[in-house]
Amino acid sequence: MSVTLAEHVRAVAGAEATELDVVLTRIAGAGRLIARELARAALVGQLGMTGDTNVQGEPVKKLDLWSNQVIVDALAATGLVCTMVSEEMAEPLHLADRCATARYVVCFDPVDGSSNLDVNGVVGTIFGIRRRTAGAEHVAVDAIQPGGAQIAAGYIMYGPATVLVLTLGKDVDAFTLGAPDGEFLRSHAGLRMPPHGHTYSANDANATHWVPGVREFLDHLRSGGTGRTYTARYAGSLVGDFHRTLIEGGIFLYPAETTSAGKLRLQYEAAPVAFLAERAGGRATTGREAVTAIRPTSYHQRVALIVGSPDEVTLAEAFIAARR
Ligand code: P6P
Fold first, then answer.
1. Domains of the chain
2. How many helices (H) and strands (E) does the chain have?
3. How far apart are CA 308 and CA 197, in angstroms?
């Protein structure tokens, strides 16, 4: 008998099971709507750009904005979320009228990897849930809580299958959408990242800009220095590249560069993925510190992300440290 997402959350989430069930059921519902819109986007004029640029200075895709609104509406409908941080919103969205009942702050990237949309590539929705703090001015504080303060995190991967991967703070489980209007059913229970793998995932067009040690690390993997052979895989979508790493092991790297601390956004890309990786037995670092330990200084802070099997991540850190 398949276990539904709601049954899983109610069985695992402890004292907050009812509240987290409400929030996660809404997020899953938003994922169902986004999956359906992605599938028909080319037929209903939803591909391409809006002509705007977001706070990141990136061109905004129609589906970025549409999906952002779907998730905002879903979280607002819970009555339990009063602050939202999104890649598509310059400032945190605060629903003051929800403050009396709100329990949670949600950081999310509505469509991660949106450069893949027009070429039908894999994209995903990434989310992290934290408890709100007290006080009238809690918004600014809550929007920059560290990744380690998350109580739940996950992503919805829109691929051949629509898969919701979730941790409630202990284990990592995956739920596959049974039918377009169906339930998310647990398809992978207790996912564990292998201690090492056979793939590395990095955009090596940036190699000349990487901080010292990264190129040497990848050369070490390529040359058989670990005693294992590796192959390169890169989807250009964090959700797609991380999901492979979670299932098969290996390493994903979006390293710091000599002129940049990193590209990926901490609050709604790196931190949820790092939280998941750690709970599946993996590791996630900037190359210098654990991603979940970083105390953010801004909502859209960018960081480096090196995430995956403990053997490869630890080795990458050693190569970087040796050339610091
Ligand atoms: P690049 C997508 O824009 C994203 O934020 C992540 O999903 C992905 O890992 C990365 O950027 C890809 O960046 O520079 O290789 O296109």
1. 5-188 (3.30.540.10), 199-322 (3.40.190.80)
2. 8, 17
3. 9
Q: Does pLDDT of 56 surpass 90?
A: no
- What does the pLDDT look like over 24-38, one tens digit per residue? 999 999 999 999 999
2 DSSP 8-state letter:
P
Cβ contact 34:64 at 8 Å: no
- Does the CB atom of residue 113 touch ligand 1 within 6 A? yes
Residue nearest to atom 4 of ligand 1 (CA): 113
Say which residues have a Cβ less than 8 Å from residue 37's Cβ, sequence separation at least 6.
44, 46, 63, 66, 67
What is residue 283's three-state secondary structure? strand
Of the pLDDT bands very low, low, confident and very high (cuts 50, 70, 90), residue 179 is confident
Nearest one of 232, 257, 253 to 307, comparing CA atoms = 253
Residue 27 alpha carbon to ligand 1 centre in Å: 23
Q: What is the DSSP string of 39-72?
A: HHGGGTT--SEEEEE-TTSPEEEHHHHHHHHHHH
Nearest Cα residue to 217 out of 285, 276, 266, 162: 285
Give 290 Cα–ligand 1 centroid separation in angstroms.
20
What global pTM score does this model have?
A: 0.97
